[in-house]
Amino acid sequence: MERPTRIGQIAKAVAIVVVVLAVAYPLVGVIGTSFASQTDIIKSSGLVLWPDHPTLDAYRTIFTGGVVTRALIVSVGITVFGTLASLLVTVGMAYGLSRRDVTGSRFILMTALFTMLFNAGIIPNFLLVKGLGLYDTYAALVMPTLVSAFNLVVLRSFFMNLPEELYDAAKVDGAGDFRILVRIVLPLSKAVLAVISLFYAVTYWNAFFNSLLYLNDSDKWPLPMVLRTYVLQGQSLNAASAGEVLAPQQAVQMAVLVIAVVPILCVYPFLQRYFTKGVLTGAIKG
C-alpha cells in the first residue's frame, strides 16, 4: 500500500468536486425553479438557482388541483404494498431455494435465472395481464414485477452463507422452517433486506412503463404518468386547478418533479449504510 502523492490527492479532490457539481447543479436548479416567480423565470431564461422572489404558488397549484395529490397517494400505496409483497415472496423463494433438501429447487432457480436472459416481450405480457383480468387495475403494476431474479439470487446467496450450524441447532431445539426463518434468518439479514427493499421501492415508485401499458383510467395514474403528461408533454396543470392560474407553468413542472424525486432521496440516506454490506455479502457465493 503506497501512500498517495500530493498530486494524486488533488486530482481525486478535483474529480469529486466536479462530480458533486454535476449532480447538484440540476437538482438545485429544479428546486429553485419550483419556488420561482414569473419574474425570476423570465429573468433567468432557464433554471433558477436562487429565486429573488421565492413563492409557494407552484405547490399550492399542485395540491389545490388534486391531480398530483391523487397520483402521489397512488404511488405511495403501490410502492408500500408492492415492496412488502415482493419482499414476502422473494424471501420465501430465496429461503426455500437456499435449502439443499428442497426437491426441485435447482429447476426453479434455473427458471428464475432464465428470465434474466430472455423476456417474453411487450405484447405477450400485455395479453397475459389482460387475460388474467388485471388490465386497468393496480394489480397490473405489482404482479408482473413481483419477483426480481437478481434480488432473488442475491438473497438466496446470503441465506446460503449463513452458518449451517444455526439451522442444525434450531432444528435440535424443535424449530420448524418457518420459525427458523422468522426468528433466526431474518434478524441476521437486515442489511441485505434493506438493500433489496430499496431496489423494489425504487422500481415501484418509478413504474412508468407498466402504467402506460396497463392503466387506461387517468384517475388511477401514479406519479410517473403525471410527470410524463404535465412535464414532458407540457400540458397545463393550472387548468386542472379549478381554472386558477396560480404559478408559471415551468415552476409547476419543476414542483411536480421535486415531489417525485424527494421521497426516494429522503429514504436513501437511512439505507445507504447497508448497501456495501448487503450487496457484497449476498454476492459472495452463487
From TrEMBL:
Organism of this sequence: Streptomyces atratus
Record bears the keyword Transmembrane: yes
A Pfam family of this chain: BPD_transp_1
Topology of the protein relative to the lipid bilayer: Multi-pass membrane protein
Location(s), subcellular: Cell membrane
Keywords: Cell membrane, Membrane, Transmembrane, Transmembrane helix, Transport
Sequence ranges assigned to domain ABC transmembrane type-1 in this UniProt record: 72-263
PANTHER family referenced in this protein's UniProt entry, alphabetically: ABC TRANSPORTER PERMEASE PROTEIN MG189-RELATED-RELATED, POLYGALACTURONAN_RHAMNOGALACTURONAN TRANSPORT SYSTEM PERMEASE PROTEIN YTCP
Record-stated family: Belongs to the binding-protein-dependent transport system permease family.
Annotated GO biological process: transmembrane transport
Membrane spanning residue stretches: 12-36, 71-95, 107-126, 138-159, 180-205, 251-271
Assigned GO CC terms: plasma membrane
Coiled-coil spans in chain: none
Main location: membrane
Protein name as it appears in the record: ABC transporter permease
